[in-house]
């Protein structure tokens, strides 16, 4: 029996098997994405344990690492950045060469800034921050990960 005849005879079966394989693949990928978006996954690296501990006692502990550190505009952009940062972090975790103080890259800072403004747009609407070009993290960088000591607590919301 030739390939053409085999495909004609079994086309429905092959389509169903392909659809089933695609469904299983999507379920596995979705489960992996959901798992990798959890803070427990991010904080499993040695270098992120302090960062996770300080986040856990912050006012933003209800959000995952990805809520702040990954783009939220599109799932495609989010997955691309997640993969890039995951490869970067795994590389440095393997080499154990993270600096004592982990700093955001320029790209990472831009993502965090957009996410700050996405959630706090109403808060900054009638302030100098609404004109653009300002940095949320310049003044509030220690609010989540405790990198600066604030002597007087200022309530933002």
TrEMBL record:
Cellular compartments per GO CC: plasma membrane
Pfam families listed in its UniProt record: Cytochrom_NNT
SUPFAM superfamilies with a match to the protein in the record: Multiheme cytochromes
An individual GO BP term: anaerobic respiration
Ranges for domain NapC/NirT cytochrome c N-terminal: 11-145
Keyword Transport included in the entry's annotation: yes
InterPro entries: Cytochrome_c-type_ET, Multihaem_cyt_sf, NapC/NirT_cyt_c_N, NapC/NirT_cytc_sf
Annotated compartments: Cell membrane
Primary localization class, coarse: membrane
Gene Ontology molecular function terms on file: electron transfer activity; metal ion binding
Keywords linked to the UniProt accession: Cell membrane, Electron transport, Heme, Iron, Membrane, Metal-binding, Transmembrane, Transmembrane helix, Transport
Similarity comment: Belongs to the NapC/NirT/NrfH family.
Protein name: Cytochrome c nitrite reductase, small subunit NrfH
Organism, scientific name: Sporomusa ovata
């Amino acid at each position: 029996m030739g390939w053409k005849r085999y495909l004609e005879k079994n086309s429905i079966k092959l389509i169903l098997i392909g659809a089933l394989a695609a469904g299983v693949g999507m379920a596995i990928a979705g489960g992996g994405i959901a798992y990798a978006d959890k803070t427990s996954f991010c904080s499993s690296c040695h270098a992120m344990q302090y960062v996770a501990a300080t986040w856990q006692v912050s006012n933003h502990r209800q959000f995952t690492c990805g809520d702040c550190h990954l783009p939220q505009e599109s799932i495609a952009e989010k997955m691309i950045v997640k993969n890039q940062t995951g490869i970067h972090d795994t590389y440095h975790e393997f080499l154990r060469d993270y600096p004592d103080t982990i700093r955001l890259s320029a790209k990472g800072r831009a993502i965090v800034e957009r996410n700050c403004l996405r959630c706090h747009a109403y808060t900054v609407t009638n302030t100098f921050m609404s004109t653009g070009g300002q940095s949320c993290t310049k003044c509030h960088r220690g609010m989540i990960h405790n990198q600066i000591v604030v002597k007087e607590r200022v309530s933002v919301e």
